[in-house]
Amino acid sequence: MARAVTPKRKAINTALAWAVGLLIFFPILWTILTSFKTEAQAINDPPIFLFFDWTLENYAVVQERSNYMRFLWNSVIIAVGSTIIGIIIAVPAAWSMAFVPSRRTKDILLWMLSTKMLPAVGVLYPIYLLFIELGLLDSRAGLVIVLMLINLPIIVWMLYTYFKEIPGEILEAARMDGASLKEEILYVLTPMAIPGIASTVLLNIILAWNEAFWTLNLTAAQAAPLTAFIASYSSPEGLFYAKLSAASTMAIAPILILGWFSQKQLVRGLTFGAVK
Amino acid sequence: MGRITLDKVTKSFGDVEVIPPLDLTIEDGEFTVFVGPSGCGKSTLLRLIAGLEDTTSGHICIDGNDATNVPPAKRGLAMVFQSYALYPHMSVRKNIAFPLRMAKLPQAEIDKRVEAAASVLNLTDYLDRKPGQLSGGQRQRVAIGRAIVREPAAFLFDEPLSNLDAALRVGMRLEISELHKRLETTMIYVTHDQVEAMTMADKIVVLRAGHIEQVGSPLELYKEPRNLFVAGFIGSPRMNLIEGPEAQKYGCHTLGIRPEHIEVSADKGPWSGVVGVSEHLGSDTFFHIQNTGLAETITVRADGEVGFRHGDRVHLTPREDVMHRFGADGLRMA
User: Fold this and answer.
1) Which of B33, B70, B74, B107 reaches 20 to 30 Å from B50, CA-CA?
2) Which residues form a coiled coil (chain A) (predicted)?
C-alpha cells in the first residue's frame, strides 16, 4: 500500500534529513573553520562560529614545517596499493565462495569477518616483531601488506555479495562457450561486476586512507602517510589547534573530494543487495 | 558428428539419488527430447551431458570418446539456457562471437561466421544492440546464434521456450525444427511440455524420478505407451484411464482410451453420462462427461460442430481397435 506523502510531511522529512546531515558533518565543518582561525581564536570561549579574522597563516606554517606532498604520496600509494592487491586476491576468492560453495563456505566467511572483531592492538606486538624481522618497519611495502590483509575480509565479503547477484547460468554459458576459468572471470564475471568492484575499491581506498592505528605504529619518517601528518600536530603542549585543524583539513581533502565525485557509486555499493 | 552414449550414469546430490543408473544412446543427427514432469531429473541429465554437473558414476561418451571427466568447454557441445544467459555487457555481435573468440579464431573468420548466423536468425539489424534492448524472442535467437556459430557436435536446449509467450513459442518451435533440418546436428532438448516434445522430436525420452520410462518416436509413444505413466503423460488432452469391472470386461486392470477415440452421440453407445464442462476450440470440442460410472470424468474429443450443452445426457462409443490395456503392475499388456 502506498503511503500518501503530504507536503507538510515532506517538509518535516527534509528538515530532519538536513538536521541529521548537518549534525554528522558538523565536526568536519568545525575542523575546516578552525583551520582558518588564529590559534587564540581557535580556543576562544565562547567559541566563535563564523565571525573571526579569516587567515591562511596556519596552512602556510604547516606547509613550511612539514612536507605535505610526501605524506600525501605515501597515503596514495598505501591506500591504492593495498586496495589493488586486495582486489586481485579477493576476486577469485569471492568467485569460489559465490559460485562453487562448499559446506564450509559460510563458516569461512564468518571466520574471515571475525578477524575484524579482534582489537588491532592485540596483534600489534607479533606484527611489530615480524616487521622488525623482515625489515618492513617504516616501509610503504610493509604498510601496503598490512592494510591489504586488514581490509581483505571486507573486500571478499563485499565482492561475494555482488557476485551472488550474478546468475550462475551466465557463467555456465561462458564455460559451455569454451571459456577457461581465467577467461570466465576476466571476460564475463568481472565486467558484469564492475559497479560492485568499483564501490568496493572506493570504500577500501577510504578505509585504508583513514586507517591510523597501523600507519602510526609501523611508520616513523619514511613511509608515514597523512594520518601521521595529522598526529604530528597533536601535541599536549602549546597552542596547536588551528594548525592541527589545517593539517587535518589537508589530510581529508583528497578523500572528501574523491567521495564527493563517487557518492552515487558508494551509496549503491553500501546498499547493494539490501533491496531487490 | 555427435553420437552421445550414456553408460550406467548416476547422479546423487548428497544422499539423494537424482539419476539412478541410466543407459541411453543418442544417434548422430537425431533430435532427442527429454520430457517429464518437473523434478524428474531431465535438466540434471542434460547438465551431466553438458559437463556442468559431474557424474557420480558411469560414463558419458561423445563420438566414441570418453567425455566423463572432460570439462564443459572441451566437450564441443553448445547449450541454450532457459534464461538465455546472454552476456549483458556485450553487444549482440560480441555475444555471438564469444565462443569463437574463446576458440582463438582469426577475426576475419569470426566476422564471417557472426554475419552468417545473424542473417540466418534475422538478427542483422540488431548486432550492435545490447541484450537488454531486445525482446524475449530476439534474445532467444541470440542465444541460439551463440550456439550455432561454433558448429558444435551437438546442441543442448534447456527449456528454451518456457519464458516466451504462447504465439512466439510456436514460432520458435518451428524455427528450431527448421534449424535442425538444415544443420542435421544432434540436438537434445529438455521440456516439460509434451506438445513441444511431440512436434519436434525424432526421439522422445520420457523420464520420471530419474528413470527412463520409455524411449521412442512420438508416434510410438502415442500408439503404444509402455506403461500408465507414459500413457497419461503423452497426448493432449490426457488419455482416459478406466479401472474396475469395465476394464475387466476387456481383460485388463486398467483400460486406456484416448479422447479422440471415443465417439459421442445423443442416442447410442455402450457408455453413457452427463455433459459437464465443454471446451470449444473451434475446430474441436472437448467434452468432459460425468456420471459415467467408469471414472470421475471421461474426456471426449468431438468435431467442433457437435453441440451438446451442459447437463445433456450423451452416449459414448469407444473404438476397440485403439484401446490400451494395462495390467495391475501398470505395464502395457501385449
Assistant:
1) B107
2) none
Report pLDDT digits (tens) over A209-252: 888 888 888 887 777 888 888 887 776 666 678 888 888 888 88
The CATH class given to the B237-326 domain equals mainly beta
Q: Which residues pair with B22 in a beta bridge?
A: B9
- Grid cell 585504508 in the structure block, residue: A208
Domain B4-231 has CATH 2.60.40.420: no
Does residue A112 fall inside a structural domain?
Answer: yes
Cβ contacts (< 8 Å) between B139 and chain A: which residues? Answer: none
| Interface with chain B: mutation pick from A165, A166, A171, A176, highest number of B CBs within 10 Å | A176
Domain of A207 in residue numbering reads as 73-271
Please check whether residue A170 lies inside any domain of the structure.
yes
Alpha carbons A119 and A114: distance in angstroms, whole number: 11
* First-residue to last-residue Cα distance in chain B: 37
CATH number where A101 lies: 1.10.3720.10
* Cis preceding-peptide flag for A46 (omega within 30 of 0): yes
Complex ipTM value:
0.83
Number of domains forming the structure of chain A: 1
**pLDDT per position as a tens digit, B175-203:** 899 989 988 999 999 999 888 999 999 99
The domains of chain B are located at: 4-231, 237-326
Cell of B203: 526421439
- Comparing B4-231 with B237-326, is the CATH topology the same? no
Give pLDDT tens digits for B118-127: 988 889 999 9
Residues of A in contact with B102 (CB under 8 A): 177-180, 183
Closest by Cα among A204, A208, A203 to A226: A208
